[in-house]
């Protein structure tokens, strides 16, 4: 059998994965949800036809969106994750015993249900007692919180579809308000490579720069995302992303990871020149 | 005439039939189904250009409808409960003007609130009628003008028994209704017509939680912006008439100014929208009401902002309130409505309908999605957090009672002189000055310019309202009547 999943990375570029078998298909109020098995990448979650994660490379994304800010913040106890219904971000967070609570705000309950059933690799820690799951619009949830979280992780889909509102100035402003005085916000920041993604990336950066005193961008390699070159936003009220970070303290935690390490931490903020220029254009 | 049901859409069906025939067009429009203008076709789409056609036998003719347009108009009349409906392709402006030109000739009087849309006063310039203005009461704290109180209209009717008609906004831009039923009775008792500007009231006819549509409570004519809450294309509107108005005469009036090349895109959009409203109107406005009620509650929970609703109703000058209108009082945040309007657009990529000096109006329709409502609420809450100001020094809007020195037509055509705006106090204005939107004149031709009015114009300009009307587009100069004032 020759069954292929194809995602259009641009109008002129396609990315295909050979499918072994389809495990789940559902149409929720918000989007179409597909989970399938593949030889190369293991299980794959796609929303509206866009790859959200694969078992093979999700560690790259989830480690980078979580451990960078967790290493910077000296005492992160109360965490908010917006999006991230697959559970991968939560899985990384609950590795820290210092974390007292994680609020997971996912708009689409069916994503969580499907992931719990078919993607235990990421969803396995959603039942941790410190985790509270809320099925609600992130923009709505955040509006009602003030001076409450040490860290907010915006683990969103793309800036079209259900994740649209999570790339707006009003959302970032509300995150600022919901953070404590030394809080950090990290977000999925799209890619600098293809024109449409780069445009979304610039817009997001512009809005974050307008909302936070410290706004930097760092990168990772994620093979199944368009161009494989992906960015994260690091926005902070007080802490610089790599100067004055107590890396030794973090190392003593002894976490066993596959992508993130403290050398990579600072290096990931060193960006290619064309990316720096894209960012400067909107600062 | 065929027996038609609301499920049919005669103009749409005729256009589809016409497409199947693959006629060879040796008639206008010259783009010939778009082939002659590839750039336009690329931009608008082939489907759109292929029905941008001229009237022909199978498509009827808007200037003299006898087949499919007439059928579509009859279905519309039935859907709205009117004796007849006219499809209008010159906007609600053309419908309002037709109402007034039908009711009034040169020298006739017409009773209307001063907060009418410019199109109504423009009609007076065209026909030479004289307005008898009713002072719409003002809500001092919100800074908005209201509906007409029954008592005030009654007095005007007694003082001007020879007036030909009463014009009423149903509702105002902000959603406020007068007692149309009582006013219609009053008009009829005195041999006058009741005309309703329902530019913002199309949806009233399709939901029982909304104020009464004017035609259902005795109005003689109503102008409806189908392109606002009805969902049709911009510039398409509807004029409804009751049994006491001559259809043929109204037709003649319409044809005085209407194009002889009516757009089938606009007409088809009216036909399709009428069908949609007739079949699904209740459902559609259920959804809109739910979204607006939710937004109102959330906005009022932010603090300082006041998204008002039915609680304003006072049985007279606010006889009813259109709950689909999301009008928000912003002055309590220390910001003029126009400032919030600008911030929403420039900083948050949110375009609202308009901002005046104390309010904004967010237009909510069936096209909105809950997540967009969340963005609006979140942005308003952010604007309050980041931009809130001290409220002192903010101008309170007041109703400025116009002093009409001569009828609009006479003033407009009188010999005039252009003066720097600061030097015009005491003169009689011969042109309009207004903020657009909402397009309600601050000054109309024939009205006395007072220091208070000049102060209001200066303030509105400073806050960033977009001002229109005068011949001098920058509004540095105003035309005044030669020899008027000191
Ligand atoms: C009360 C009122 N009447 C009439 C009109 C004219 O409508 P149109 O722009 O369709 O000509 C408007 C438009 O904004 C209006 O607000």
UniProtKB/TrEMBL annotation, chain A:
E.C. numbers: 2.5.1.16
SUPFAM superfamilies named among the record's database cross-references: S-adenosyl-L-methionine-dependent methyltransferases
Keywords for this protein: Polyamine biosynthesis, Spermidine biosynthesis, Transferase
Catalytic reaction annotation: S-adenosyl 3-(methylsulfanyl)propylamine + putrescine = S-methyl-5'-thioadenosine + spermidine + H(+)
Residues bound to S-methyl-5'-thioadenosine: 31, 106, 137-138, 162
GO CC annotation: cytosol
Enzyme class: transferase
Residues given in the record as spermidine binding sites: 62, 86, 155-158
PROSITE patterns on file: PABS_1, PABS_2
Pathway where it operates: Amine and polyamine biosynthesis; spermidine biosynthesis; spermidine from putrescine: step 1/1
GO biological process: spermidine biosynthetic process
Family according to the record: Belongs to the spermidine/spermine synthase family.
Subunit relationships: Homodimer or homotetramer.
UniProt protein name: Polyamine aminopropyltransferase
Species of origin: Schwartzia succinivorans DSM 10502
TrEMBL record, chain B:
GO molecular function: carboxy-lyase activity
Sections of the chain in a coiled coil: none
InterPro entries reported in the protein's UniProt record: Orn/Lys/Arg_deCO2ase_major_dom (IPR000310), Orn_Lys_Arg_decarboxylase-I (IPR052357), Prn/Lys/Arg_de-COase_C (IPR008286), PyrdxlP-dep_Trfase (IPR015424), PyrdxlP-dep_Trfase_major (IPR015421)
Gene3D superfamilies found in the cross-reference section: Orn/Lys/Arg decarboxylase, C-terminal domain, Type I PLP-dependent aspartate aminotransferase-like (Major domain)
Keyword annotations: Decarboxylase, Lyase, Pyridoxal phosphate
Pfam families named among the record's database cross-references: OKR_DC_1, OKR_DC_1_C
Domain Orn/Lys/Arg decarboxylases family 1 pyridoxal-P attachment site residue range list: 223-237
Names of the cofactor(s): pyridoxal 5'-phosphate
Domain of life: Bacteria
The keyword tRNA processing is assigned to this record: no
Family membership: Belongs to the Orn/Lys/Arg decarboxylase class-I family.
Protein name in the entry: Arginine/lysine/ornithine decarboxylase
